[in-house]
Amino acid sequence: MRYHFEKPGFYTNLYGEIYCCEHPVYSRCTLFRIGQNGLAVIQQRFDPATKTTWWEEIDTWVTDAIYLHTEFRHFFEERARPCKDGLYPTVTVRQIMWALKMKPLPKEQWETVFDRKDI
C-alpha cells in the first residue's frame, strides 16, 4: 500500500517566496533562502484542456512542511548556492520530498522526471 503526502485541513505558508526568473525550464518557483544562499523548488502542472504541462512554484500547503522538516537544513546546505546570473540551484518538489524521506505527493500519469541532479 502506498502512502502520499495529503493536503492538511489547516496549514500555514510562512516560509519560501515566489521567485520570478528567466530559467530555461520555468519562470516562477518557490525560493527558500537563508543568508546569501538559495534553493529553488518547482512543481509540474497540467492543463487538461490543452494537454500541456509546465513547471512553476510548489503548492503553498507543502512549503512549511518541507522547510520545517528536521533534515531540511542539511539538504539545503548541500544543494543551495548564491544567486548566479539571476538563477539559484533548482530541485523538483518530488526530489526534495524523497531526499527528506517525506511521503511524496501522488505521481500523475503526465508527470515528467529529470534524470539529473541539477536542473
Tell me what you see in this structure.
With 119 residues, the chain is an alpha+beta fold. The protein has a domain at 17-99. 19% of the residues lie in helices and 27% in strands. It contains three helices and six strands. It has helices at residues 60-67, 72-79, 93-99, and strands at residues 17-20, 28-34, 37-47, 52-56, 81-82, 90-92. Strands 1, 2, 3, 4, 5 and 6 form a six-stranded mixed β-sheet that branches. β3 and β4 (52-56) form a beta hairpin. The mean pLDDT is 91.
Short description:
This protein has 3 helices and 6 strands, in the order ββββααββα. With 119 residues, the protein is of the alpha+beta class.
Mean pLDDT across all amino acids: 91
Strand content: 25-35%
The tally of strands reads: 6
Main sheet properties: 6 strands, mixed
Question: What is the SS-derived class?
Answer: alpha+beta
